[in-house]
Structures
1.
Amino acid sequence: MATYTTDVAVIGAGTAGLAAERHARKEGATTLLIDPVFAGTTCATVGCMPSKLLIAAADAAQAVRQAIDFGVTAEPVLDGRAVLERVRLLRDDFARGVRQSIEELPKGTCLTARARFEAPGVLALDTGDRVEARAVVIATGASPAVPKPYEAVKDHILTNETIFELEDLPESVGVIGAGPLGLELAQAMHRLGVRVEVFDAGDRLAGLPAEASDALHRILTESFPIHLDCKPDPSASDTGAALTWDGGKTRFEKLLIAAGRPPNLSALDLEKAGLELDDHGTPVFDPGTLQCGDAPIFIAGDANHDRPLLHEASDEGTVAGRNAAAWPDVRRTSRKVPLSIAFTRPEAAVIGTIPDGTEYVCGEVDYGNQGRARVEGRAQGLARIYASAEDGRLTGAALCAPSGEHLAHLLAWAIQCEMTASDMLDLPFYHPVIEEGLQMALRDVCRQAGLSRPWQRNDEPLPGSDGGASED
């Protein structure tokens, strides 16, 4: 049995863990990176990239179908095996790039093992070895949860970790969970010719506020059923799994469980680290420093379940790695504006803070009549922009709109720069583009907040540009 001594031990070699190790080492600390498989990041292997590859294939099929709207006659011929083969080919290439970066780490950095706390600052490895560290970063990520009732049909269960390994597209898929992942894959499968239905115990889609959720629900249910406030009961059937709920019963070849990804913490023996845990068993930590209480232990990425997104994991790993290396000289960082995107068609997003009080104003644009969206046959959805009633400063937004991923970035940047609606209207908007639609919502905010219009700015909409007439 060997005992390794290091300044910073990082548990988990995903996005957060890799960033933590790199930045701890940049601070001059000795580091150890501990992971059981070093397979690559969740994003590259079973998350962002393979799901977007499947969506890209679905977009291609839908574009062929929709060609008739433009006077072009065509009909897609779907080869499910070829679709999934391309997904895996490019997915494996992305993952290979991550693994190559791991291989380039300094010799002796990586330990292939599972770690658990034996005491504060002491890790026991399943290889029989031990690690003694001045500081520890927990970056163990998260895994899909399969609710207990679904164990009865486990042979027909898919998760984001297995769906991309299918050799061919199934005939039908029941999707459990109407979050971003469930909706993205449900729509993609539907567009690739799979019969799909979605079930969720909640009353909102993709974490959206009511108005944007309702808009997305109307759009998606034109193609496939979405059952909200619904907890179906699974049971085995001769050719798959059956779901029964109030008023309905149907059978699916496969069930995709997209009902959440809890942090991978249960095997760490956190109680031996002397940490205070919340009701879910997650260490209580400071989001500005990523430090767990007063201990030289930091938690980053999906493991803390605060903002389980790749760009947040990268940022958190950077902060946690630096602070672990410099402990007790811990620095606090301000966080970026929250930004979450569901890559449905149209895309849906939540940006910043959605207020629930009365000290705010809200401007809205209906993309069902926006010029460029109509040109492209994508005229559907809406965007709602929230701002302080006092000065019109932007605070948040929610949308379900064509090119929503790009609109969301523009709004996130504006919010982080503490711009008012009037400040944003002073920026250039080209014609004809999807972004023009935001002007209608921004003008609405200006009117409600009582912001004066600069004399040289034309706030009259160009004909057909943003789908709304000025009310000034």
2.
Amino acid sequence: MQRTQIDGVPVFTAAGPQRTTAALVFGVGLRDETFATIEVTHLVEHLAMAALPRTHLRCNAVTDVDSTAFFATGRPEAVRAFLEGICRALADLPTQRLAAEAGVLQAEGCGTGSSTVSALWAARYGLTGPGLTVSAGPGPEHLPEEVVRAHAARWFVRGNAALWCHGPLPEGLRLPLAAGPRPARRVPVPRPQDGPVWTRTDAPGVGLLLATDRPDDVALAVGVDVAKDRLRERARHTRGLSYAVDSLALDLAADRREVAVVVDARTGRDAEVAALLWQTFAELCADGPTAAEVAHAVAGLEAELDEEDAAGAELADAAYCAAVGLPSRPAAATLAAWRATTPAQVTAALRRAEPTAVLAVPDTAVWDGPDPRVVRRPLCGTLPALPEGVLFRPPLHRRLLDPAARVALVVSDEGLAHRDADGDVHGIPWSRVEAVVPTDDGAGVSVVGRDLCCVLVHPDRYGRRAVAAVLDRAPAAAVLGVPASGTPELAAV
């Protein structure tokens, strides 16, 4: 692998096939948005791609939680035209297509929905950073041109980009991006946690989230691989409860890595799979892996690095790290570190991570948790009782006839509180309001809290005075207007 530079952008290259595969990577993704601007990065990506002429070149783009990449495979001159066209479009977005591309995003169904990994991130960070991926947000039609252009001007710049190229580097390639340094990324603050917790989510699978403050925690990576192998043997091969066991690591900073382990389950067997996941993790924390299990994990990495596309994967990792400002380790060095890792080191790494553990199970599972020392923590902010303030309730006749109407709303100078039909009380301090989104008919609002609570305040339920009281106290900057195209449904959070 060779490193060079074009127009101030780091470029990573390696010899390969006659056809060129290249990707222009930017250190910006969903984690860099807010609830009100969810999908703005994806919209910038669509606008840039829409600016290109029609082509038969194999090309595409993807916006992820942590990065955005534009990639193509073909003749070197065609790849050069693609990359240069993307750079020109990002420097001057064709915002005349804003409404059309917002519609394309809606048609694409691009809201990330409630995947298990997203639910785990949200359980840790609420509606900030990677936790934003649990929601589709208000919708791209709420994004005005000035917000989209400002996002592109801040993030899609030379200092926040890197290019990787497998095969011939196109001759004369230029990367005419706007000048600018890498923006400082906000590192989300996790919810306070004194030990392992478990929670219920509306995601379909079972998951475990672990955190480490070590920049490249090889021992934890080996431990997670061993845990996956044990769990796969127990849940799939022995008991037939699960099909897949996966993991995903996300570096939020050089000293903050989140590692998620996700397991699917047969219908109605989520509780058993959750128990197996926690049992496997707890056993490894207590007794550690065997030398044979560690050796098996190392052999798996060796096989992965021996695959045909390993060179491309190493280039992609180097470019990603350069774009987001993280240290990169060559594949050979990573393999050497895995080979040097001992069972004792793996045990120590898992024990360090145990107090950060978040175990998530579907809210349909009949389960009381793994063991008494693992505390259940609700996914969103709850209160023991309704606080003092102005009380709003549906009319008495509705409460008598409809159990779903047996709810209550309290508005105070400190915040908003809502008691749902099940008797649970959800609270949103005004300082923790992420957005106030108008309802489809424009008569009411949904108040979205950073801690995942979402309270619908509508005159049909609580009367016009309740809506007025909320709008009078909610942060003005958080109140969204009704887009010209109409207000979409707010994704559940």
3.
Amino acid sequence: MRVIICGAGQVGYGIAEKLSAEQNDVSVIDTSAQLIRMVRDNLDVRGFVGHGSHPTVLELAGAAEADMIIAVTLHDEVNMVACQVAHSLFNVPTKIARIRSQSYLEQHYLDLFSRDHMPIDVIISPEVEVGDMVLRRIALPGATDIVRFGDGKIAMLAIECLEDCPVVNTPLAQLSELFPDLPSTVVGVSRNGRLFIPRSADQLVTGDLAYVVTSKEQVRRTLGLFGHEEQEATRIVIAGGGNIGLYVAQAIEARGSRTKVKIIESTRERAVVIADELRRTVVLHGSALDQKLLLEADIEDAELMVALTNDDQVNILSCVMAKRMGCKANLALLNNPTYHDFTRTLGIDAHINPRNVTISRVLQHVRRGRIRAVHTIQRGAAEIIEAEALETSPLVGPPMRDLDLPEGVRIGAIFRNGEVIKPSGATKIKPKDRVVIFAMENAVKQVEQMFRVSLEFF
């Protein structure tokens, strides 16, 4: 596949890294010569210095033969124009743009991005994607990662096995026998920095991070089985009143729940704006690192501190301070991946990487075959993929015990006619089933092939 990526920042670089490793023909455009030099030096891609919206630059990058353009520069307007030029002058089939400004995304304006006006096939809003992830973490505090599949009926949970975890040192096959009515499957395990797919005879140990696929109705029971009985926070302090902080507060208010939210915003003008937008949320102006302001926000009685500023260090320090002052738990937005390995020792209970969230959203549209959703984990070491099985798929027909699945692949759930099916050796996959699969990085291409239409079908 020939792909042009406009923007060589964290997201653009991450997408280029992933696609080039899968032997795609990738060109990257950015106005920064330094970023393009870094891309050329570290990745097997072509780099071009210039504006991604300029026809001459797009032509130089190979737009005439491109299958897709992914515009993820820092400027919405550049992304939009790049897609328009790619469509009008070069007839690029698929156009993906990152749009940050919420004014473009108002429901009654969405016709702007139709084929007759500004032809963008996929719009990605990082703020909305990250905001939804934050809301899922707030709703299920026992999980360190939560992603929905199958029209929201299937959930993938990342669950840490603590010292009092009831399921440690028990073979996974025995767990299935003890809880036959629980549609939960452990599809992956991260242990001491190594990610692997467990066998039925394997056991979980203290410190493991288990990736579990289950039905929406059984999420809390599954968390309870792993010893996580944490309740959803009802007193929350948010550091940062930017687009994400405002989105999260508005969503909590819209639910009409009894949750009380307070936002700390450092910029006075922004604090006034969001105070006008919110009805029940208390907005405080000042620094989230100011102990007096944290006390004014009643941090000692808060159940959760959510740090969503644009500064990783402020997010880390405010979370640490909040916990020292009595807050029960914290959640930090961390852009810099080098901080992720130290979150526990720094006193961070959970973190969200906006770069990974955005890259996952892009990849589901890059993946070939009937791929409906993609979520990358462990910095791209594996992917959770939801795909629709076709009549020609090698998965369709035989019992699962007879399938010749590639090494590094585990089926977590099957979604059929609105029902979630836990896979077993006797399960048969049917055409139009949606299959949720855990795939290690080196097996992703093979998973794509399983869900592609073969020529013989025609």
4.
Amino acid sequence: MIEARHIEALTNLLGEKGLLTAPGDRAAYETGARYDKGRAAFVARPASTAETSAVVAYCVQNGIALVPQSGNTGLVSGSTPDDSGRQGVLSLDRLTAPFELDRVNRSVKAGAGLRLSDLNGKLEDTGLFFPIDLGADPRLGGMIATNTGGSRFLRYGDVRRNTLGLTVVLADETGTVLDLSSDLRKNNTGVDWKQLFIGTSGAFGIVTECVLNLEPAPKQSATALLVPSSPEQVATLLVAMEDALGGYLSAFEGMSGNAISAALDHVPSLRNPFQGGIVPDFVILAEISRSTPPREGEQPLDAVLEEVLATIWERDDAPLADAFVGPPHEIWALRHALSEGVKHSGRLIAFDLSFRRGDIMPFLAHMKAEMPEHFEDVTICDFGHIGDGGVHFNLVVAKNDPRIADPDFEADLRAWVFSVAVEQFGGSFSAEHAIGRKNQVFYDQYTPEKIRELAAGLKTITSPATLGAITF
């Protein structure tokens, strides 16, 4: 616990609605999206950049550690406090202003506490959208802090690519407000400072406002479920689709049969689209889209997709075993239900990995062969973004498995998976979930010493006080 005088001072800065201290009020901010739970000294909820600056300055001056929290949808214990009861949570949930659309510049200035769904809801009538497609509904500040990518990274890129400017509060004694809110797309006048705060888990500063690039919303789309003739042919199929479709290809998502079956078992609203109800071992969700409305005489996208798939089907190397062209809303409903289905299948131990695109399927084949030898009765339910090299490598253990109570079991399992991914396949242990307490040991292990020294130096320059759940 922290002293009562600090609670009184913070209440004076934020008002009663801006500071939560009762256990019941704090509970939602202390519990993460995936099992992690801590205990906060308080939850600060500033409603402006100025209030954020004042709170941060007070906490730095009085040695109070802060954990910034956005939508609290992260999976690596990066947004929740530890169990000491001495860390304060600084929530972005009231930082929903401003909202300033520049239609000509195709950009928007928005508060970091605005949820992704609310942002795109406000943009619905403009013909524009923020093109990061996620199963969760995070707030913008957290998306920036973790540099999220999502299912349409293949076409639109990640948050880093779509961020034009930021307003950031630094964790120093004055709560310095750093105005990096330029909405220029080209500005080569020196270091691009905003990049320091994208993908660094909130440790370098707290984003309170952002200027984001917007894209024309798709007016037409077509989707298909593709069954590759073998795991080895997935890469061939991806290249063939890119060669034939170019910029039309907006998604190329991989889904294991185990993950699909879990979704069908636990999400009753889903329809099983596979012949005879038999789920293949591995399925690709492919999407093509146009941002223009249909024109007279223009070939419909369903026909374009069917034509391309027919051509690929006839190739001598036969990368395609089967295909189902279907309604986009039904096919995407299956993809977006995977996380929910896997979560209800047992105790979930989740990994967010990335590889060179050609190494994804060899990695998955290696793990399916080796898992029973290292960890019995662990089910692999993988899915992910094959088009950009990302894999949500989910492992499920039965809910009554006694190993769940042994903290060494999960630690050993994580260490083994990361050693294979990083050391044998040259991958990353964090594709887009960033680094929280769960990944701290692996950041320390796999990040070269000189890089860690540089990162620590930048942290000292920007926010010398304790900020966030990771130590750079």
